[in-house]
Amino acid sequence: MVDTSRGDAPAPPAEEPRGCLFALSQPPLMIFLTVVGCLLLMAALHDLFLL
């Protein structure tokens, strides 16, 4: 049987994988989501009070 084990332990990853919370912490994305949210809010208020 062939020995396929390595002598050294595998090196830990340099950085942890970044998830959704890291993406939401980026300023351009938050500005975009704020603008879209404000437009949806203005459209909803327009429908409720002016139509």
List keywords for this structure.
single chain, 51 residues, mainly alpha, 2 helices, rod-shaped
Layout of secondary structure:
Layout: H1 20-24, H2 27-49
Detailed description of the structure:
This protein has 51 residues and is an all-alpha fold. It contains two helices and no strands. The longest helix is centred in the last third of the chain and has 23 residues, at 27-49. The protein starts with 19 loop residues before the first helix and ends with a helix. The model has no long low-confidence stretch (mean pLDDT 81).
Can I get a quick summary?
The chain contains 2 helices and no strands.
Proportion of β residues? under 5%
From the spread of the alpha carbons, the general shape counts as rod-shaped
Number of helices: 2
Major β-sheet profile: none
Q: Order of helices and strands, N to C?
A: HH
**Spatial extent as radius of gyration:** 25 Å
- What value does the average pLDDT take? 81
Q: Unreliable segments (pLDDT under 50, ≥5 consecutive)?
A: none
Distance linking N and C termini:
80 Å
Kindly name the structural category: mainly alpha
Number of strands: 0
Helix content: 40-55%
